[in-house]
Amino acid sequence: MVLNQADIDRALTRIAHEILESNKGSQDLVLLGIPRRGYPLAVRLAAKIAAADPTVDPAAIVGQLDVTMFRDDLSHQAMRPPYPTQLPRTGIDNKVVVLIDDVLYSGRTIRAALDAIIDLGRPRIVRLAVLIDRGHRELPIRADHVGKNLPTSSAEKVRVRLEETDSVDGAPVNEVVIEATA
Amino acid sequence: MKHLLSTEDLSLSDAVRILDTAEEMAAVGEREVKKLPTLRGRTVVNLFFEDSTRTRISFEAAAKRLSADVINFSAKGSSVSKGESLKDTAQTLSAMGADAVVIRHWASGAPHRLAATDWIDAAVINAGDGTHEHPTQALLDAFTMRRHWSKLAGTPSAGAALTGMRVAIAGDVLHSRVARSNVWLLRTLGAEVTLVAPPTLLPIGVEKWPCSVSYDLDETLARGVDAMMMLRVQGERMNASFFPTTREYSRRWGFDDNRLRALDTLGFKDTIIMHPGPMNRGLEISSAAADSPRSTVLAQVRNGVSIRMAALYLLLSGDTREPAGRPNTTTSASAETTSAHAPKESH
Q: Most buried residue, A13, A111, A128, A137, by most Cβ within 10 Å?
């Protein structure tokens, strides 16, 4: 196991403070999670930001951004069902949007996310926060906030399991593990 | 899913997947930029051997919202009027590189023929064949009903079926591909369907369909209906007299002002009135009913674009380098890339 529940929690607490620090406060912040596991991470980060800054309403700064329809590999992979896109009521125009995802790998998801954002509005700044950066980028994209840098081989698979989306034998689970692909 | 030919062989999970995908597509229609880059560079051919306005425009709007290139083909003014066969037309389109063919044909089974032969290697969507099926119409009707049904129940529509919903379909069942597609799909989704028509406008063998049959519209309404779907009287397909006069038809089987009032007096305040269009106002549906707040006619048209976007997306995305049922055409190189990509998560 690479990260356990406490490790994930500590990494998210640090990222939450980094986001506040680089933004010099909480003004204009919007957290957009990328389905599926980016969204629960965005919700957790919003709660931590609200804990550090009581003026923040966590529910009002979190949204979900589906990038399925903007991917460049749709004809090369199994069919992906689209997820809902939900923006905070304030929209994203002139906001500081922080994209949240679980694992940063090729960078293609983030490329799709940037296209999706442009169709929805014009943020002042777009930043990127990820729980795991496993390397092997195929595009000139980097994360502003990283929970853990994880050197991997491309033959390996990084599994993030969160209690909001995953369970093992019916029990909720929070962990990051590396699996070798068959 | 490679083709969308009928609702009879559509599984519950496939049907719900199309409806759920359409729900996300509908959200695109409400945005400022009503366009997705999803099918950029793919070509959709609208192959229409029969007149149509809303279905063709709806498919065209759906394909364009997904950034596909659209080629419209109608039999009038084409080589078909010079006697070209379906096979030659299909092979011509194939040579031009069509990725999907949306076909409407006066012959029942034409889309199946296109899909089953090797004339063309494209996804085939049935946009109405003869008196057989019209699956996207049934799906958009089910989508409209599901939104209404979940709103009444106060539950989200995503993932839901139509369990327990009472649907009556009235009118020219004999000539209606819409009715056939709806009966199969609504059964799969768990709704209770009643067909209401004069005996002359019911097909032979209707007693074997998964629905009940009534000859009396008032009696059906009195028993309680959650969605009332009126069918168009298809004058162009009527080669015999199926009812004495249009006046008698509208009196007995049309949804007129009296029946609209009856819904209120019977206390069915949530019953919706549906019509696939085009409407014969004054024949199968009165103007007051068509324009009443219960009418979902325009919502059906709006939902049609979402459903067709969902169908095009589900058929044209996914790994197209390995056509189903033809594993031997895969080269070793593409098999390698497929296996390298297949386990990849959405990172």
A: A128
